[in-house]
Amino acid sequence: MFINEIKYRLGEFIIIEHSGVLLTWVTHIALGAQRSGRCFIVGNILLIGPLDREAAGFLKLEFHEHLMKLPPWDKTRYYCFASSLRKVGTEESLESYLTEQLFIDKMGMESVNITAPGTFRLDRYKINVGENSIISWQTIGELNRTIGGRCFTESGILFIGPKENELDEAQSRKIFLNELKLLPKWDKTFAWGNYGSLRICEESKPRKSYKAIWKPEYMKTYVTNKRPFLHRQESRKERNSALKVLVFDWLKTTWHRIVDWKVWGRLAGLIIAGTFFGFRLFMFIIEKLLFLSQRIIERFRKHR
Hints:
With 304 residues, the protein is α+β, with helices and mostly antiparallel strands. Helix content is 29%, strand content 31%. It has a seven-stranded mixed beta sheet. A seven-stranded mixed beta sheet has the order 7-13-12-11-10-9-8.
């Protein structure tokens, strides 16, 4: 049981600090429900961990009013969702790793200072550290062309930057992957992810992405918004099937919330008032239509 609780505002989240040893997040979802989970401070990044529980809470307007009364989160400069990062070595989502951590002091990570040059393997990427400590990546893109760009590290996490260059000549994907297997594994950071997942904790633009401001001095090429991660495209039938499953699950979950949390009782006043207002509006429109029709009939009779 924690006695001291300090609440902060971060975008659509309420960040709660419990006695300085535990961080949790709370956000609002549909029909007066709320979700919550744990947060972790990693250097200068607030990691929003996986969902722990879901329960009844405020309505949307009530939650927003409560949220806007809280001070903005200022303990870190950046924040990131743990689901968008991977653990180096295991290639699993960072969420499973965070579930084993209890308190925020166990997650402290110092800034990484990589000086020794070398080439490493990280998933499908070839990571190269130059003599000037500039980190870059390469992988096989569309049409078997080699694409590449810059990387940067923040609080012990390697972020893959945007695509900056692409070779015109195609290369064998098999040869590239075979050469990649011969390289040592990347172990200079404990986690890695895409640069677009790192967001800035700003009051004016709470959901601003790091990719909108990351423009190092040595970048002379045009920065695109394309992410270098390669994902297999699903067929149209698979997407439609997945969409149907999601819609069915949402309807099922919504019905259970209505029954279990007695939402009708909480919204009864609004429903009755809305129904009464709609009925009055309907009668007003009918009266106007009858009045206009009578005027038209009277004018028609006068001109006969």
